């Protein structure tokens, strides 16, 4: 039984050149290897995002539900972020 499946994909010229360039440089042995590595990276990123959402975001939401007085408006959030950025700029 085969453990691989052959697919045909169409890439924008820039992406196709990036794939070919990595093979030409010797970084990868084949175009398929480049695509597999990219897909593995995407799957790992998606898994990390899912983990973050299920652990940290859900926990933060649960805390906010338990104590709604901690909530701030989007305007307050923007003001705080702008202040942080200003503080960092002035600290050098």
TrEMBL record:
Keywords, ordered alphabetically: Toxin-antitoxin system
- Please name the GO terms of the biological process aspect recorded for this protein, alphabetically: regulation of DNA-templated transcription
PANTHER family referenced in this protein's UniProt entry, alphabetically: ANTITOXIN PARD
Q: Which organism is it from?
A: Mobiluncus mulieris
Gene3D superfamilies according to UniProt: Antitoxin ParD1-like
**Protein name per Swiss-Prot or TrEMBL:** Type II toxin-antitoxin system ParD family antitoxin
Family statement: Belongs to the ParD antitoxin family.
Q: Name one Pfam family in it.
A: ParD_antitoxin
- Per the database entry, which stretches of residues form a coiled coil? none
Q: Which InterPro entries does the record associate with it?
A: ParD, ParD_sf, Ribbon_hlx_hlx
């Amino acid at each position: 039984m085969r453990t691989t499946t052959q697919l045909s994909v169409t890439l924008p010229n820039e992406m196709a050149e990036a794939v070919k360039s990595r093979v030409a440089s010797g970084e990868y042995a084949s175009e398929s290897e480049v695509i597999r590595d990219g897909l593995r990276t995407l799957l790992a990123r998606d898994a990390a995002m899912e983990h973050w959402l299920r652990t940290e975001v859900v926990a933060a939401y649960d805390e906010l539900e338990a104590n709604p007085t901690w909530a701030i408006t989007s305007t307050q959030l923007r003001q705080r972020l702008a202040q942080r950025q200003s503080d960092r700029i002035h600290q050098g």
